[in-house]
Amino acid sequence: MYQPKTQIAAIAFGVKDLMLKGLYEETLNHFREKIHPFLPLFSISFILPSIIKASSHSHDYHHGLQLHSLSIKSGTDQDPTVSNSLLTMYVKFQNIQFARKMFDTMPERDTITWNSMINGYIQNSHFPDGVKTFKEMFFNGYEPKPELIASIISVCARCDAFNLGREIHALLIVSDLNPDSSFVSTSLIDLYFRCRNSNMAIRVFDSMDVSNRNEAPWTAVISGCVADGKYMMALDYFRTMLNEEEEIKPNRVTLIAILPACSIRNGKQIHAYAIRIGLDSDSTIVSSLINMYGNHLEFFPQARSIFNRSTHKDIVTWSSILSIYSQSETTVEETFVLFKQMLMKGINPNSVTMLAILSACSTLPILIRGSVSHCMVLKMGFGFHLFINNSLINMYSKCGSLLNSRQVFDEMIEKDNFSWSAIIGAYAQHGYGEQALILYNEMDVKPDEIIYMSVLSACNHVDLVKEGRKLFDRMTNEGEITLTLEHYACYVDLLGKAGFLEEACEVVEKMRMEPNMKIWSSLVLACKDYGRLEVAERLGKKIIELEPENGSFYTLLCMVYAELGNWVAVEELRNCMRLRGLKKCQGFSWIC
User: Fold this and answer.
1) 181 lies in a domain?
2) Residue 588 — pLDDT band, cuts 50, 70, 90?
3) For residue 427, which of 445, 412, 409, 449 has the smallest C-alpha distance?
4) Averaged pLDDT for residues 19-31
5) Is the residue at 97 inside a domain?
6) CB 485 within 8 Å of CB 513
7) Is residue 103 domain-resident?
8) pLDDT tens-digit profile of 287-307?
9) pTM of the shown model
């Protein structure tokens, strides 16, 4: 006897079983061959959402359109479950226009509808539309899920829409919609750290219910402290996380986050912990450990040992070892040896790898190597990467080819502050201070600390005191940037070399921070050169008191005493250097 209800239940069970097993292609074939030809249209509405979902997962766009047509033909497109499935399908197909059209024509919208539409905007990088739709959802009385709130706050953090993120946080609190969710708290912690409000980020973390503190918020607060330069605080949170009674322990992401904050002593402890929990073979952990040890020249052998023992050397691991070897003149040759080994193993470089190679070419400035590396950059298709071009400008400048630096700069489609800073610094390094100032005046970006430093250096290279004074006054009076010791040192050196000793001393007296040794030594040299030997002697004694183990300062004071004809004092200083075992680093020239 024919029993339609029994038959329909069996069909539904068969489709559900295939979907649970992840057999999406088989589900579609089953529908095409055994269900659609034999059941009337009105009978398939109960399985249509599952079939649409199968089409989404199998990325069968053509079949998805057919299913949409079938839903219209059968009149089930107005059913909320079917229409939500179609909306989600178009989102997965990255057809945001069709998804929005579905959304606008739906007679009924529920929380799932709004969540799907907003997530669709976010997943397809339509962030402003996603935020706008989120506001509409809220004001239409729908309560968003914690996951959706977290996504919107994360969008605000990524797009630097910090004020909007704060508004959403405030709105959640005022409306009693502040869910005690790990997702929301983690996104808020990230938001506040990104907008340099670490106190608020920590406050959000501390206010969380202990039961909701899983690995995600712990890792967020640790990585935020590291990014904010609060290394001791990051280590304290890491230790607290280790000592928690719950089963919440650092995972691989937590270890990667904390390693940049570690001294060698702490880094070794993290390394031992990674070995204990079996994460020392993870390629990302390996790369982080290589970078940690590689920050200290004396621990290069440990970094190399970790690299050699790694069983799975991916491009990230190779890029890490190349990067640390490219930073030092004593190890830079090994960079090219390792790079050849990498290529011979069939591993293609990525943009980060090529940055390390260009850095090596800058450290060991040999033009032919730099040119060959540039050809490889073009061959690999990295010629339009902004940071690669910035590195090329710097590399050619270090190799003595200002013409090539300028050519790379002129051919760049996109330029940022680093691009302008690099080319201005190149002209300054080659003694073309006037051209550097012309470039500064032609800039179409707002200057930052680095650009101001490059222009000041250009003025210093060619003794452009008037222009340097005007620039320093602008930096001081407009208050757009924070002056650093490097800015002061460069300006004091400029004034001192030009003989404006009183003005240089006045600048030092007005500094809002303690002068460093570079500033004091610039003043001593300027006073010596312009015959202010008593002042030079007084300042020379002061810097030796501040840094008694630096042989260069003793030599500098010896030169001052020699100018004064005080040979007894010269001999006393030399005897003091011998007793302390101090030597001045010898200068040398390398002509190739």
Assistant:
1) no
2) very low
3) 409
4) 70
5) no
6) yes
7) no
8) 999 999 998 888 999 999 999
9) 0.73
